[in-house]
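PROTEIN DATA CARD
Card holder: Thiamine-phosphate synthase
Chain length: 348
Origin: Stanieria cyanosphaera
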Amino acid sequence: MQRAIYRILDTNLDRAREGLRIIEEWCRLGLNNSQLAEECKNMRQELAEWHTAQLRQARDTPGDVGTELTHPKEENRDDIEHLLRANLCRTQEALRVIEEYSKLYKPQLGIAAKQMRYQIYTLESNLLTNHRLQQLQNASLYLVTSPSEQILAVVDAALQAGLTLVQYREKTADDTLRLTQAQQLCQLCHQYGALFLVNDRVDLALAVDADGVHLGQQDLPIALAREILGPQKIIGRSTTNPEEMAKAIAEGADYLGVGPVYETPTKPNKTAAGFDYLRYAAANSPIPWFAIGGIDLNNLNEVLLNGAQRVAVVRAIMQAEQPGMITRQFLSELGRQQRLLDLGTHLI
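Structure generated from the sequence above:
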């Protein structure tokens, strides 16, 4: 019996350390986050100290009946978030096994494993939040959908062209249709590794496990939306002036909509905020922001010259005959502008 316990501990110490190493590599090389990478490394090293020669000597890989066991879900990972979740769960489960069986070996190891398991829960929250925020930071083009019989085909074409951020906006349909479309769009976006947000409806975002929600000025307070969705989700807020911007930032918004830049039928009762507000946002916003409102390829350069680096569009893609081609043109122009900015910063 003692040898069996040693084998169980040896196997799960290996499993926990391997899972941590996979997570550590993403923190280090995917996120460039030295703090999270160091946290993973420290936990790995602590487990290594408990992984004694006595436990290793009990190993019997040829005689382990579990080496041939597998499951189809282990064969593939849909995206980086799926990969991270799988290895976080793997590590948590291994630590739980260590915690229990150590009570028959060295209770101090069990105590250490329990503390580490709770540390992993916190790491999971921080890691997934960090991953989404990094994706948000990197996104230059934001598609906000409008009602369309071809909504899935349009979004799919845009995603194929390189789009990485989509918001589902539907103001008039019944909830049955909204739920179905949101589920389909969420799945589609995640297949491409893109972020999927829901406009206004926190309950709908929660129901489909969206990456977050976009709130207007008359919607729920940001704090309440975050309490409902959890700390890992993205929350954006529409703003039309510096006062609304300051309030949204103080309340903890992850990003801002800034506009409408031009008058648009999407916001029929909103006066255009114009370029002054864009320039103000460029000089004062510490968080990502997207210029929005009547932006298309004909006026994009004017918007960029007034300080925007990210734009959100509706009709320019949703009503395009070739949404994929239009998306590529947007991304190409936004990428060119970013390269010019990077060059200017380097020269300075």
